[in-house]
Amino acid sequence: MRVREGIPLLLEVLKYPERAGGLELTRWDALVRQARVNRMLGTLAHSVRDTGGWSRIPPAPRRHLEWALRLSRTHCAELEWELSCIAEALRPLDTPVVLLKGAAYHVAGLKASAGRLFGDVDLLVERRALGAVEGALMRHGWMNAHHDPYDQRYYRQWMHELPPMQHIQRGTIVDVHHAILPPTARLKTDSRPLFDASVAVEGRPFRVLAREDMVLHGATHLFFSEGEMPHGCRDLVDLYHLVGTAADGEFWRRLQARAAELGLEEPLMLAAYFLDRVMGASLPREVQAWAADAFPGGMRGAVLRGALDSALAVRESHHRTLSGALKEGYLIVRGHRQKMPLPLLVRHLGRKAWIGVFPEKPRGGVDR
Amino acid sequence: MQWRLHPDGVLLRSWQDGAAAFHGGAGDIYVLSPLCGAILERMQSSRAWCLESLADRLLAECDAPPPGEDWCDLVRRALESMERLRLIERQE
Amino acid sequence: MAGPGVVIGAGRLSFRLRSALDFVADGVHHLYGHHPLLSRGFADFSVEVNPPRSLRRWFARQACFRHDGASTFLPLPRDQALPLLEWGLNWCVYAHVQDRLVLHAAVVERDDRALIIPAPPGSGKSTLVAGLSCAGWRLLSDELALLTLTGQEVEGLCRPVSLKNASIGILRGIAGAEPFSPTVTDTLKGDVALMRPPRASVEQAGRPARPFAIVFPSFRAGSSPSVTSLGPAMAFGGLLESAFNVSALREEGFSVLGDLVECCRCFRIEYGSLADGMALVQEIHGTGEA
Fold first, then answer.
1. Which of A25, A155, A272, C59 could lock onto A163 through a cystine, CB 3.0 to 4.6 A?
2. Is residue A361 assigned to a domain?
3. Among A140, A91, A84, which Cα is nearest to B8's?
4. Is the model's pLDDT at A359 over the cut of 70?
5. Do A123 and A99 form a contact (C-beta atoms < 8 A)?
6. If you average pLDDT over each of A274-283, A309-318, C59-68, which comes out highest?
7. Is B71 in CB contact (< 8 Å) with chain C?
């Protein structure tokens, strides 16, 4: 079920970083561009550096990798500061705070965090603690970033998170979740077992999800959130690093059992299917067979496969073709259907379409 | 009550016309008055200061204290403004 | 410049330029006439200036700057394509380069003493350095100064100088019409024209220079020339506003700026004519004579 025999250059080098040393300059030109467009230049730089082939890379492309390494160091330092500010704000509350996604990979020292550019910090807290957490963050300078009353109501009524909170001085954003899926979603999962299995981080007042739950959350987030997948390929590579590069049958058995417990078999199946199809990841044979078997057949499967192939593909350029946009448009509708009842969806999408009439504002820097 | 540098550390360049400070945690850079620079310099060479002994020490080293100002109050205001920047903090 | 485009070397960087617009290709060949064309397969930045792809192309004759396929700026009327390309290339440098501290500043050098001239638009820094470059100074940059993180050296890319309004006529009077692009009228900044940098400067673009002075210029028509000496803290504060990537470089960015104001003499100059400004710069430069 592979897309094709050869995988894109970026994925090939991420899988086999030792091959970077033998690339010609024209290939580096394509590789650096692919990595930058797909927000994985730092990831690439870390992978290549860690294999020791650094000195064999021609100086011109190596400089881009060095820039990316420096930027990722800065991102780490800024994330550390952000975490210390969040910790200070939440210290008086006696409630578990679980870090999700990028920040979690960072504090847990996982490979998926190496070279990453960190954006928002995502927290998971108990639903009953939401108000206290929101209040504590507000007392320390975070404000609701969505002033539109519609957005506020949308988040509070239908979502599994508070509206994003932005720090008034630093501009950084914290997303406070009480579940990994919205209450209106077709898939249901209870947050209780996630908290129970979560692991305390040494030396920090935070927790992270158990490794299996991290994979399941990553898969759920990739395949079952807002539908738009601006960094689909990067998120898939995160999953690739999270499941480990060896076909660890024991880990996958635990993963499948946990997915069944949490009702998250569908995202796990999609993750396995596309890790195999797009990345050629080494999965246990029975997992490959399970995913191929469980993937929808017929027209529905073909459309879903086409849309996800397009959304998870390595982009050669930021420019999107019309057919790509249409395929991903299908994903937006699909993603929302996973989350909202139909009448509400029509209301929300109608509004999104209206806002979408005005193009997204690029930076207004006419100057310079 | 005593004052000390933020535990994440502060890089300091102190000149006659003022000072520049880099906050090791936040990564922010501030340009400060010469008095703030002098205070941070003392704090770098020693762990914590109470207001009175800091003001005395600075006054002793200062050639011409600004006339007609309450020196101790001036130092306190400088400390408080640097506390708002989180360059320094109070230690009870 | 259609198809795969051309790769131009500028200082230590290279740019792959593409455009389907003939006048952009002609302009680039003219303005970058002294720059080397590179044939190796790698370019630091691949950019294009082309009509927008969206529906906009049917409404207005516009041009769009794209890097790796993404438009960084709002489209501009098509006749502003060349200035747009220059703004776009500046963006490529300050948004990506992380092994230099990138300052929004002009740099000129003579006798191994470089002057760094940081300033907001309208302060006359481009006019000043264009004038100096015609008077035998080496031009390193009119917009971006690249400071090395270790060696206390400054580099420039020696790209075309962007001139505005009355400056265009003044510099054409000095350098002749030949090095200039056609003047674009009615931009947000008024009239804009680009001037090709002198051949000797372009050929030395790869050689760094040693900073000697930092000069904050302020042009006010009719004012009499004056020089004020600045302390290091004042100069540091002024440079901080011009430093694009100082926060990305953290401690190192801070130290580079600190070292720079400590090793340089720092001044504010005010002048009312190009001749006065150039004389003040010569005077400051002269204080370094043994």
1. A155
2. no
3. A84
4. no
5. yes
6. A274-283
7. no
Closest partner residue to B20 (CB to CB) among C233, C247, C251 is C233
Specify the CATH number for the domain of residue A125.
Answer: 3.30.460.40
B19-67 per-position pLDDT tens digit: 999 999 999 999 999 999 999 999 998 778 899 888 888 888 876 666 6
Topology of the domain comprising B2-91 = Outer Surface Protein A; domain 3 (3.90.930)
> What letter does residue A137 receive in the DSSP assignment?
H
Q: List, for residues A133-150, the tens digit of each pLDDT value.
A: 999 999 999 998 776 777
Helix (H, G, I), strand (E, B) or coil at C71: strand
Task: Compute the nearest-CA separation of B15 from chain C (Å).
Answer: 7
Cβ–Cβ below 8 Å for A368 and C40 = no
Residue A213 has pLDDT above 90, yes or no: yes
Confidence bin at A3 (pLDDT 50/70/90): very low
Contact call for B24 and C247, based on CB within 8 A: no
C144-189 pLDDT, tens digit per residue, is 999 999 879 999 999 999 999 999 999 999 999 999 999 998 777 7
Q: B47: which 2 tokens?
A: 């762990």
Domain C99-290 CATH assignment equals 3.30.110 = no
Which amino acid is present at C14? Answer: S
| Among C103, C132, C123, residue whose Cα is nearest residue C284 | C132
Best of C230, C234, C236 to substitute, by most chain B Cβ atoms within 10 angstroms, is C236
- Identify the residue among C18, C45, C68 best suited for mutation to test binding to A, counting A beta carbons within 10 A and taking the highest: C68
What is the arithmetic mean of pLDDT over A244-265? 92
Question: Residues A32, A61: contact at Cβ < 8 Å?
Answer: yes
CB neighbour class for A324 (10 Å; exposed up to 12, middle 13-18, buried from 19): middle
Q: Which two tokens stand for residue C167?
A: 């400056």
Q: What is the DSSP string of C128-178?
A: HHHHHHHTTPEEEESSEEEEESSS--EE---PPEEEETHHHHHHHHHH-ST
Instruction: Give chain A positions within 8 Å (CB) of C87.
Output: 365-368
| H/E element, A291 | helix A285-294
Q: Which residues contact A214 (CB under 8 A, 6 or more apart)?
A: A104, A208, A242
Length of chain B equals 92
Q: Which of C240, C288, C270, C248 is nearest to C115 (CA)?
A: C288
All residues at 6 or more sequence positions from A268 whose CB lies less than 8 Å from its CB, including other chains: A215, A216, A219, A255, A256, A259
A35, A57 contact by CB (below 8 A): no
**A104 in any annotated domain:** yes
Radius of gyration of chain A (CA): 21
> Are the beta carbons of A11 and A278 closer than 8 angstroms?
yes
CA-based radius of gyration for chain C = 19
Q: CATH 3.40.50 occupies which residues in chain C? A: 99-290
